[in-house]
Amino acid sequence: MKFFESYKKQILIVLAIFLLVASVFTAGKTGNANFIESTLGFIVTPLQKVSTNISSFFDDKFHNIKNQSDLKAENEELKSEIERLERENKRLSLLDEENKKLSALLEIAQKYAAYDTTASQIIAKDPGNWYNIFVMDKGTKDGISANMVLTAEGGLVGKITEAGYTYSKGMSILDSRSSVSAMSVRTGDLGIVKGDYTLMNDGLCKMEYINSDAEIMEGDEIITSHLSDVYPPGISIGVVKEVKTDSNGLTKYAIIEPHVDFKHLDTILIISENGKMSDVSSQNEEVED
Amino acid sequence: MRTRIITTSLILILNLILQSTLFQAIRIANIIPNTSIIIIISYAILRGRTEGAAVGCFSGILTDIFFGTSFGFYGLLGMLTGYLCGRSFHHLYRENYLLPIMISAIAVFIYENIIYLTGFLFSGNTEYFYFLIHLIIPEMVYTAVFSIIIYRLLFALNDWLEDKEKYRYRLF
């Protein structure tokens, strides 16, 4: 203790320099968490899970009291929706079979391959006001690793920026540091979907760098393009809400309304692009060794 | 000293957990009060710059690990906040009720401006007044309101700890 007392100024300066250097060198890196981070996560994440569950329990209770009358009607509606979707699903699986046979005949690879998925719960959200980062309750022990893609309700949510042993950190597409290469389904126009702080709180994002003579318009479906090495092609992002021309007059940008309701997001599907989750986890172990 | 370290770390971990989970429900216009800054300035006012810096550093590193994209940014920022507040405000009259409100508002202003400068202005975002009106000022007000309660709690805790330590360590 006496050592700390007499050298406290020097210790503070060394610590400050260390943090400065560390923050410069680790900026923007994605990867898996180190031992210290994983240990802290091991302690903190169960508590966060408990706390989130308590708050969502009360949220549900209040919600139920408010909407009790609507529940019955909603239930009926959902049942008929399920029936419709089941029928659709059967039809689509037949089409899928046919597609596989035909593409085998033509000897081309499947464009929209079936990816392995795991469900995960959001247990904590960003404590600051600037960004949109969240923590999920699955980590490297469940085969999760950085740069895996997150979806919910059929739309893109974001990607994993860091995976610890029991937790993983995700960045949503609304975060102003996120960018996703995207494409309009109808016209095939390419662009980059970026987060924007002025739109983040309304749950919207922006598609930038669209060619000025692109025929993109309101209501167009936007999906991830084949240009990205993180996001697999064909995941739907959202619908165009508005198209505007940039001030330079050379490019357009569009305001995108994502399919996902980011305010009430709690369960997430993690997609592993390279095959099965178990393969991924064994790869991770090899890397650690 | 050991009791102090343990209680402080527990407070900081509890703060991180609450801020990332339960306090998400009290967002007004998407603004959440910055409770970690209140804890940092409380320690700085009550205990001086060294402890302010230590508490700020630890609290920032926790944020870095769970919500940051680079290790050390929030740690450094929290440490600077703690050190500067402790250096400037440690000799003020600590029982004052207005003091923590004003200091936390100023600390939030400087803290958020540094985040804007490094994270947004450097990446080409020049809408400073949008951020000032929609984020920084609401957060200052909201944090200042919360600082009344949290400062009093930490003040009482500090009294209890100092009372315990009185016979073992020289205080002044």
Question: What's the total number of strands of chain A?
Answer: 13
Q: Are there runs of chain A of 5+ residues with pLDDT below 50, and where?
A: 275-289
Return the structural class of chain A.
Answer: alpha+beta
**CATH fold-level name of chain B:** Arp2/3 complex 21 kDa subunit ARPC3
Chain oligomer state:
heterodimer
Q: Name the structural class of chain B.
A: mainly alpha
| Cα end-to-end separation of chain B | 15 Å
Q: What's the CATH topology name of the domain at 179-263 in chain A?
A: Thrombin, subunit H
Helical content band of chain A: 25-40%
> How do the strands of the widest beta sheet of chain A line up side by side?
2-3-6-5-4-13
Tell me about the biggest sheet of chain A? 6 strands, antiparallel, barrel
Q: What is the strand and helix layout of this fold?
A:
The complex is a heterodimer of chains A (289) and B (172).
Chain A: H1 2-6, H2 8-25, E1 31-32, H3 35-106, E2 116-125, E3 133-136, E4 149-152, E5 155-163, E6 168-172, E7 179-184, E8 190-194, H4 197-200, E9 205-211, E10 221-224, E11 236-245, E12 251-258, E13 267-272, H5 277-288
Parallel strand pairs in A: 1-5
Antiparallel strand pairs in A: 2-3, 2-13, 3-6, 4-5, 4-13, 5-6, 7-8, 7-10, 8-9, 9-12, 10-11, 11-12
Chain B: H1 2-20, H2 35-47, H3 49-67, H4 73-89, H5 98-121, H6 128-165
Helix pairs in contact in B: 1-3, 2-3, 2-4, 2-5, 2-6, 3-4, 4-5, 5-6
Q: Could you please describe the fold and organization of this structure?
A:
The complex is a heterodimer of chains A (289) and B (172). In chain A, the strands form two sheets. A six-stranded antiparallel β-barrel of chain A has the order 2-3-6-5-4-13. A six-stranded antiparallel beta barrel of chain A has the order 7-8-9-12-11-10. By secondary structure, chain A is an alpha+beta fold. Chain A contains five helices and 13 strands. Residues 275-289 of chain A have low confidence and may be disordered. Chain A is globular and about 75 Å long. Chain A has a domain at 179-263: Rod shape-determining protein MreC, domain 2 (Thrombin, subunit H). Chain A has helices at residues 2-6, 8-25, 35-106, 197-200, 277-288, and strands spanning 31-32, 116-125, 133-136, 149-152, 155-163, 168-172, 179-184, 190-194, 205-211, 221-224, 236-245, 251-258, 267-272. The radius of gyration of chain B is 16 Å and the shape is globular. Chain B has six helices and no strands. The two termini of chain B are 15 Å apart. With 172 residues, chain B is mostly helical. Chain B has a single domain (2-165), classed as Arp2/3 complex 21 kDa subunit ARPC3 (Orthogonal Bundle), CATH 1.10.1760. The longest helix of chain B has 38 residues, at 128-165.
